[in-house]
Write a structure and sequence with these properties.
Helix Hairpins; about 20% strand; 3 domains; three-stranded antiparallel beta sheet; five-stranded mixed beta sheet; alpha+beta; Heat Shock Protein 90; 7 helices; elongated
């Protein structure tokens, strides 16, 4: 067998075999040959097909990768754009479109939107807190200015009017003392509110509301109805102040007698304080607990409108509720509910 090259790419494979037939006295050589041109053509065609297939596969892979990566990175680009817009405008109401994909990108989108919700809530709370502080400072300044003006005027009168009568001088000194006491009470109330604003943490222990109320009332002319023990977990000093505030408020805005009922209703210990005054307008049921709020009928009375605000903070610190209403028989009623044990 032998191979002969016809061209650089085409060969002829030749094979010769001798044979003979003694019975026929015949002998010879058989020569067979085959060109590799057909095989070369098939190989070249196959190479072309493989090359084109590789090109097509590469292009398809690149296109599919571009599409998939574009879809996968779209939320990330949106995240970056939203972050830039929030940084530039401060608009925390912006949100990423919710993702239906149950993967890391979907989890990232949900986490980012949740973070924006928390930031928006925190900013809203901070803005409201700053507004309340500014209003508080303005109201406190106003309340302090009134007694200071009175004290200054009377001090000026005493300094400039040496010829004033003994009665006028005594009245001026008495008024200075009264306004000084008013300022002292106001400062005490402001300090109490400052402590409640600092997240009041009452020292709660088991106590009997009925017995505590009897201690507050003492031998006064208050009508107290507290026949049975009412046990709650509470801070004795804070609840003592709460009851005292409600009593002072009833005395200041109503006519005697002040009536107090202490009882247990379901799972709550309830204190109800009623006065016999003009009562409240419906729109005042909630407003009376605002800081420095005073009903028009009480403008000429002592007090700065802080007592009920302090009372509300004490009740809230005990996970309770306080409400104001009018009694069917006349006068206002303030009800406190505390979790009973």
């Amino acid at each position: 067998a032998a191979t002969y090259s016809i061209t650089d790419t085409v060969d002829i494979h030749v094979e010769a075999r001798a044979w003979q037939r003694p019975d026929l006295e015949v002998a010879g050589v058989v020569v067979a040959g085959q060109s590799t041109a057909f095989i070369a053509e098939q190989v070249d065609g196959l190479r072309a097909v493989i090359f084109v297939s590789l090109i097509i596969t590469l292009l398809v892979s690149l296109a599919a990768g571009w599409i998939v990566s574009g879809r996968a990175l779209r939320p990330l680009r949106s995240l970056a754009e939203t972050t830039d817009e929030i940084g530039a405008t401060g608009d925390l109401t912006r949100r990423l479109p919710p993702s239906n994909a149950d993967d890391e990108v979907g989890a990232l989108t949900a986490s980012f939107n949740a973070m924006l919700e928390r930031l928006q809530a925190a900013r809203t709370e901070l803005t409201e807190s700053l507004r309340r502080q500014q209003q508080f400072v303005a109201d406190a300044s106003h309340e302090l200015r009134s007694p200071l003006t009175t004290i200054r005027n009377n001090a000026g009168f005493l300094a400039e009017r040496a010829d004033a009568s003994a009665v006028d001088r005594r009245d001026a000194v008495a008024e200075i003392g009264e306004e000084s006491d008013r300022m002292a009470r106001l400062v005490d109330d402001l300090l109490a509110l400052a402590r409640t604003d600092g997240d009041l943490a009452p020292d709660r222990r088991p106590l009997d509301l009925s017995a505590l109320t009897r201690d507050v009332v003492g031998r006064s002319d208050i009508n107290l109805e507290a026949p049975d023990p009412v046990d709650v977990n509470g801070d004795r000093d804070a609840l003592y102040r709460l009851i005292l505030i409600l009593i002072e408020n009833a005395r200041r805005h109503g006519s005697p007698p002040v009536e107090i009922v202490v009882r247990r209703i379901d799972s709550s210990g309830v204190i109800e304080v009623r006065d016999h005054g003009p009562g409240l307008r419906i729109d005042e049921y909630d407003r009376v607990f605002d800081r420095f709020y005073q009903a028009d009928s009480s403008r000429n009375r002592e007090g700065a409108g802080l007592g009920l605000a302090i009372a509300r903070e004490i009740v809230m610190a005990h996970q309770g509720a306080i409400a104001a209403s009018n009694h069917p028989g006349g006068g206002a009623v303030f009800s406190v509910r505390l979790p009973a044990i």
